[in-house]
């Protein structure tokens, strides 16, 4: 729910780059959450479409900030700098949260004292606009599963700051890298089996683009391994 002038309990950070078609759904899914006073911060990472207009339609319920294009990690990091909540949650502009997503993660954190971070399960869905082109149809065959994605994470702000920002050199795999650093820092993390994130599959994030992104996944994994080897040595 919006904070209605109260200090926010949770800061929801939505990085956005040319997501005019999906941004409103993401924002609406955040504003529907009933986990306490929320602030929703949209960081526009240099969009050239109508994303700014979409965010501004929500008026005071959303804080909109523009920055020159620097990548999703830098956009999330900027959101963290602006956030005022005790907890941080991240939602990509093309994804949505089911109702109760934040409450479920917050309740798990409170049920296990000392837990500073909770991940949940992710369910993928095919964006309806893909079906407009029969040649681009995709059929999902796997069930929802727990995944360490930014959008499935709720974390105490103090714990996030202790770990540090997302690595802006990574365009994908940045949460893998961050979670590895969190483990090394001794952050207590738990996972919930329930679906907390619905990840949209659309023409700009389908398998046709994944090959070019594999280097970032490998870099994140190599960095984690190198850091742990250095610590062990």
Structure, described:
The protein is an alpha/beta fold. Helices cover 35% and strands 23% of the residues. The chain has helices at residues 23-31, 51-56, 72-82, 101-111, 157-163, 174-184, 207-232; strands at 10-16, 38-45, 62-67, 87-90, 117-126, 145-146, 153-156, 189-201. Strands 1, 2, 3, 4, 5, 6, 7 and 8 form an eight-stranded mixed β-sheet that branches. α2 links the parallel β2 and β3 (62-67). α6 (174-184) packs parallel to α7. The longest helix is centred in the C-terminal third of the chain and has 26 residues, at 207-232. It starts with 9 loop residues before the first strand and ends with a helix. Residues 206-212 have low confidence and may be disordered.
**Beginning-to-end CA distance, first to last residue:** 48 Å
CATH topology: Spore Coat Polysaccharide Biosynthesis Protein SpsA, Chain A
CATH H-level homologous superfamily name? Spore Coat Polysaccharide Biosynthesis Protein SpsA, Chain A
Indicate the radius of gyration in whole angstroms: 17 Å
The tally of strands reads: 8
The CATH architecture name reads Alpha-Beta Complex
Mind telling me the CATH class? Answer: Alpha Beta
When the domains are counted, the total is 1
N to C succession of SSEs = EHEHEHEHEEEHHEH
Helix percentage range: 25-40%
Number of helices: 7
Overall mean pLDDT stands at: 87
Question: What would you call the structural class?
Answer: alpha/beta
The stretches of 5 or more residues where confidence is low (pLDDT under 50) are 206-212
